[in-house]
User: Which sequence fits this backbone?
C-alpha cells in the first residue's frame, strides 16, 4: 500500500474523506428539490381547499416561488 | 493577595536555592519541563490547525469514539488538562454534547498513562539529555520557517527537547540529593500517610497545573529512592485529582455546559481516587502478581508505578463509562443557569476565550451568540409594535392579536438597548474581529457574514426604535385611517417576524428555503402597496400632512426592519450547517428573481 492509499484508508476509517465540493452542492440541491416538489404538491392541495382570499393569495405566492426554485435547481443540475 | 503569595514563593525558593544547589536543579528541571510542555502544546495547535475540530465532529458521535479521541490526542499532546480545556471549548460552542465531552475526558485519562510509561521505561533508564540537545537545535531551526506545519513540528521538537532536558535536571538533582540527605526519613506509613501524600500530590499538581510534571517528579524521586513506593502511589492518586484544576480554571470563562464538564472531570478523578485509596495494599499485591507478565522486574518500582497509574485510569474509565448519562443528569441538576428576567441586564452566553482556539469552534460560538442577540432584538421589536413575542409565537390569527393589543404599550427602548443589546453586540463584534485576525481566509468567509448579520440585527433594532414614537401615537388614534395604516404596518411586521421564527427554528430545510424567498417577496409587495395607499390617503385628505410624513418615514423604517431581518435569517440559516450551505443558498431566490414575481399592479390585499 503506497502512502497516498494509506492516508485515504485512514481518512475513510475516521469518516473525514474530503468530498468534491461541487458534487456535494449538487447532492444537496437534488435532495432539496425532492422536498420542494413534495411541498409544491402539498401547497396545491391546500390551495384547492382554502376559501379565505388572503390565505389563498399567500399560498399562491408560495407556489410561484417553489416553481421558480425548482426550475433554478434543475438548471444548476443540468449545467 | 496573589502577588503577596507570589512574592513569598519567590523568596522561599531563593532561600532554598541558596541553601541547596540540588533543590535548584530539581526546580529548574520542573521549570524546563513545564516550558517544554507548553511548546509541545503550541506545536500541536500549529500542526493540526482547524483539523482538530473537524476531526472531532466526525469521530465523537458516540461515547467509545469520544474515549478513543481523548486517548489519542492526550497521547500526542501529553496533556490531559489541555484536552479537557479543548473539550470545554467545544462544548461551549455546541460542537459536542456534555456526554461526548465526558468521553473525551475518560479517554484523556487513558492517554495520560502513556507519558508515565515513556518516562519510567525510557526517560529514567537512558541518558535522554543527549537527545534533548539536537532536538532543540532542529526544533528551533524549524520554528523560524514560514510554513505553519514546519513551525508546528519545530515547536513540538523543542517541546520534547526541553521536556527531556527538564527530566535530566530533575534526575540529576535527586541523584545528588541521595548523597547528602535521605528524603525517605520524611515518609509516612499507614492510611494517614496515604492521605497526607495524596494531598501533597494534589497540591503540587495544582501549583504546576500539569499531572505530567508531577508524575515526572514522582518517578525521578522514586528512581532515586527518595520516596517510598507506597508514598509514590499516594502522590500519583493526588496528581490525578490535582490535574482537574486545569479544566476548572479553563471553565471559569466558559458557559454552563463547559462548567459541567469541568465538574465531571473533578468528580470522576476525585471519586476514583477516593475509592482506590482504600485499596492501595491490595493493589500493590495485585501489581506484584501482574508485573512479571509484562516483563517488569521485581524491584523496578518506577515501571510498577506506571502500571499502577494505568490500572487507576482504566478503573476510572470502566467505572464511569457506563454511568455517563447518569453523571450528565447529576451535572444538569448541579449546574442550572439562573433564569434572567427580561428586565434584567443580559450578557453573552457562549463567547469565551477558549472558543478562539479553533475556527469551527469560533464560527459555531459566533453563530449561537448572534442567535442570542437576535432573540433579544426580536423581543424588543415585538414590544415596539405593542405586542409580545409570545403573541407572535402563538398560533393566533394576526387580526386577533391586533384586536387584543389595540392599546399602545410603552417600552423604554434606550434602556433595553443598554441592558440587553449593547454589551452582547460589542462582545460579538470584538470576538469576530479577533477570530478574523487569527484564522485563514477560508474561515473568514464563514465568519464575516455572521458578523454582518449582527450589525443587521442592530440596524433592525434602530429602525424599530425610530418607528416606536409614532406607533405609540397612532395605534389608538381617533383618526381611523391613520390607525388602520399603522395596524397595517404592524400586521405585516408580525407576519414577517413569525416567518423569521419559523426559519430560525425549523428543522425542515425546504420550508426555510421557501420562506426566505417569500420574506423578500412580501417585503417588496408591501413597499409597493404602501406607497399606493399613502398617495391615495393624501389626495383624499384623510390624513394630515404631519401624519403623512410620519407614515412615509415609518413605512421606510418598517421596510428596513423587514429587509435587515430577512438578511439575518438568510445568514443564520445558511451558516447553521456549512456542509450544505452552498446547495441551500443556490435555491434561495435573489432580489432580481423575486422582483420578477412581483406584480406592481396588484391591489393591497389586506386592508
Assistant:
Amino acid at each position: 500500500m503506497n502512502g497516498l492509499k494509506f492516508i485515504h484508508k485512514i481518512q475513510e476509517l475516521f469518516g473525514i474523506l474530503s468530498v468534491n465540493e461541487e458534487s456535494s452542492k449538487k447532492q444537496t440541491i437534488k435532495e432539496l428539490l425532492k422536498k420542494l416538489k413534495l411541498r409544491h404538491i402539498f401547497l396545491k392541495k391546500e390551495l384547492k381547499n382554502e376559501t379565505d382570499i388572503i390565505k389563498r393569495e399567500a399560498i399562491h405566492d408560495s407556489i410561484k416561488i417553489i416553481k421558480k426554485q425548482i426550475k433554478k435547481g434543475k438548471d444548476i443540475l443540468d449545467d | 493577595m496573589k502577588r503577596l503569595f507570589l512574592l513569598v514563593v519567590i523568596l522561599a525558593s531563593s532561600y532554598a536555592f541558596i541553601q541547596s544547589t540540588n533543590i535548584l536543579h530539581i526546580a529548574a528541571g520542573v521549570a524546563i519541563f513545564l516550558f517544554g510542555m507548553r511548546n509541545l502544546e503550541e506545536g500541536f495547535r500549529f500542526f493540526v490547525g482547524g483539523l482538530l475540530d473537524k476531526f472531532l465532529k466526525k469521530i465523537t458521535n458516540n461515547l467509545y469514539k469520544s474515549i478513543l479521541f481523548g486517548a489519542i490526542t492526550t497521547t500526542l499532546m501529553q496533556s490531559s488538562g489541555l484536552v479537557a480545556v479543548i473539550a470545554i471549548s467545544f462544548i461551549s460552542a455546541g460542537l459536542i454534547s456534555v456526554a461526548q465531552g465526558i468521553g473525551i475526558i475518560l479517554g484523556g485519562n487513558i492517554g495520560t498513562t502513556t507519558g508515565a510509561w515513556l518516562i519510567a521505561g525510557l526517560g529514567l533508564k537512558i541518558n535522554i539529555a543527549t537527545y534533548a540537545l539536537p532536538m532543540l537545535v532542529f526544533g528551533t531551526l524549524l520554528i523560524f520557517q514560514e510554513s505553519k506545519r514546519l513551525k508546528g513540528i519545530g515547536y513540538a521538537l523543542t517541546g520534547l527537547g526541553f521536556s527531556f532536558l527538564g527530566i535530566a535536571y530533575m534526575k540529576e538533582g535527586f541523584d545528588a540529593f541521595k548523597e547528602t540527605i535521605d528524603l525517605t526519613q520524611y515518609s509516612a506509613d499507614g492510611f494517614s500517610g496515604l492521605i497526607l501524600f495524596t494531598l501533597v500530590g494534589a497540591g503540587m499538581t495544582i501549583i504546576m497545573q500539569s499531572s505530567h510534571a508531577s508524575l515526572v517528579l514522582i518517578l525521578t524521586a522514586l528512581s532515586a529512592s527518595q520516596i517510598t513506593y507506597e508514598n509514590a502511589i499516594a502522590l500519583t492518586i493526588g496528581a490525578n485529582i490535582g490535574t482537574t484544576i486545569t479544566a476548572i480554571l479553563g471553565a471559569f470563562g466558559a458557559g454552563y455546559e463547559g462548567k459541567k464538564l469541568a465538574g465531571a472531570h473533578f468528580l470522576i478523578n476525585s471519586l476514583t481516587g477516593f475509592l482506590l485509596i482504600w485499596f492501595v495494599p491490595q493493589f500493590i499485591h495485585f501489581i506484584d502478581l501482574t508485573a512479571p507478565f509484562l516483563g517488569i522486574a521485581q524491584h523496578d518500582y518506577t515501571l510498577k508505578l506506571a502500571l499502577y497509574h494505568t490500572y487507576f485510569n482504566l478503573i476510572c474509565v470502566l467505572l464511569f463509562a457506563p454511568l455517563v448519562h447518569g453523571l450528565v443528569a447529576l451535572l444538569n441538576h448541579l449546574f442550572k443557569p439562573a433564569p434572567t428576567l427580561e428586565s434584567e441586564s443580559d450578557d453573552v452566553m457562549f463567547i469565551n476565550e477558549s472558543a478562539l482556539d479553533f475556527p469551527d469552534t469560533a464560527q459555531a460560538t459566533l453563530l449561537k451568540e448572534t442567535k442570542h442577540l437576535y432573540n433579544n432584538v426580536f423581543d424588543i421589536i415585538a414590544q415596539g409594535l405593542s405586542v409580545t413575542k409570545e403573541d407572535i409565537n402563538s398560533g393566533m390569527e394576526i387580526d386577533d392579536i391586533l384586536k387584543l393589543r389595540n392599546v399602545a404599550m410603552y417600552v423604554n427602548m434606550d434602556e433595553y438597548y443598554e441592558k440587553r443589546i449593547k454589551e452582547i453586540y460589542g462582545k460579538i463584534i470584538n470576538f469576530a474581529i479577533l477570530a478574523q485576525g487569527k484564522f485563514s481566509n477560508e474561515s473568514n468567509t464563514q465568519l464575516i457574514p455572521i458578523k454582518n448579520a449582527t450589525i443587521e440585527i442592530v440596524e433592525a433594532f434602530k429602525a424599530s426604535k425610530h418607528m416606536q414614537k409614532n406607533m405609540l401615537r397612532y395605534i389608538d388614534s381617533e383618526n381611523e385611517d391613520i390607525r388602520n395604516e399603522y395596524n397595517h404596518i404592524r400586521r405585516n411586521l408580525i407576519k414577517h417576524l413569525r416567518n423569521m421564527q419559523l426559519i430560525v427554528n425549523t428543522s425542515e430545510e425546504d420550508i426555510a428555503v421557501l420562506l426566505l424567498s417569500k420574506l423578500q417577496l412580501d417585503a417588496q409587495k408591501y413597499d409597493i402597496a404602501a406607497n399606493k395607499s399613502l398617495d391615495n390617503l393624501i389626495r383624499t385628505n384623510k390624513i394630515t400632512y404631519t401624519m403623512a410624513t410620519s407614515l412615509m418615514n415609518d413605512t421606510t423604517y418598517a421596510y428596513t426592519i423587514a429587509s435587515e431581518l430577512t438578511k439575518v435569517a438568510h445568514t443564520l440559516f445558511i451558516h447553521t450547517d456549512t456542509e450544505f450551505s452552498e446547495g441551500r443558498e443556490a435555491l434561495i431566490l435573489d432580489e432580481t428573481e423575486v422582483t420578477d414575481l412581483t406584480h406592481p399592479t396588484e391591489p393591497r390585499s389586506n386592508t
Observations:
- The helical segments of chain A are 3-14, 21-49, 53-78.
